[in-house]
Amino acid sequence: MALIETDEAARRLARAIASDISIFYDEKVTDGVRHDTLFDVLAEEIAEGENLYKTRVAPNIQGGNHFYKALVDVLIVPKGTVPSKMW
Questions:
Q1: Domain spans in the chain, listed from the N-terminal domain onward
Q2: Has this prediction a pTM greater than 0.85?
Q3: How far apart are CA 36 and CA 38, in angstroms?
């Protein structure tokens, strides 16, 4: 399989991975936002997703930080109504 060579395709992949985490681990996402421990409680899942992202995206595109931007946009922003000291 060819590596992803464009920023747009890398962003789409990152968002798809983040969406999968959100769907399969919604309760952990909510608890992580509530207690400001999101990256701790989802450390394993995030590491797995990041590894998948890195195996599919060309190294010169990975520096765009698309993966972590997608985590914020897909996991954290939608939980804006959850009481948290993050806000």
A1: 7-79
A2: yes
A3: 6
DSSP secondary structure, 19-70, as one string:
HHHHHHTHHHHHHHHHTT-HHHHTHHHHHHHHHHHHHHB-HHHHTT-HHHHH
Encoded tokens for 72: 């914020």
Pick from 5, 1, 3: nearest CA to 64: 5
User: Contact, 67 vs 17, CB < 8 A?
Assistant: yes
Whole-angstrom distance between the N-terminal and C-terminal Cα of the chain? Answer: 41
Q: What pLDDT does 86 receive? A: 86
Taking 70 as the pLDDT cut, the residues of the chain under it are: none
What amino acid occupies position 11?
R
| The pLDDT of residue 40 | 98
